[in-house]
Specification:
HIV-inactivating Protein, Cyanovirin-n; Cyanovirin-N_sf; elongated; 0% helix
Length: 109
């Protein structure tokens, strides 16, 4: 199940140099569950680009933000990331590509 179509109050928070996706996700019985998903366990920085399957992007980023964008309310993570040359560049990642809601739990696929 698409996490963003079956959740509410989704936003990011940062604590202890990590970025968390938090909100409430609907279970299959229709009830709601508070969720907190550590994006740093599944998102990395590959030479200034947010990438799936990496880790620890927050350590090399600034201006991390999250919004639902466009007509489809696509859940987009954006940040400025350091690259190998020492500069910074803007990058974004569609969180709907790999995150799903499995009975009230956010899961990386």
């Amino acid at each position: 199940m698409s996490f963003y179509a079956s959740s509410e109050g989704i936003r990011i928070t940062q604590e202890n140099r990590r970025t968390w996706l938090v909100g409430r996700a609907r279970r299959t019985d229709g009830s709601w569950k508070d969720v907190k998903f550590d994006l740093d366990n599944v998102v990395g920085n590959a030479d200034g680009r947010l990438t799936w399957g990496g880790q620890g992007f927050t350590e090399t980023s600034s201006n991390v933000r999250f919004n639902f964008e466009g007509g489809g309310n696509v859940p987009v993570l954006r940040a400025r990331l350091r690259n190998a040359a020492g500069g910074e560049q803007e990058s974004d990642l569609n969180l709907g590509e790999r995150l799903t809601n499995v009975n009230g739990d956010l899961v990386f696929n």
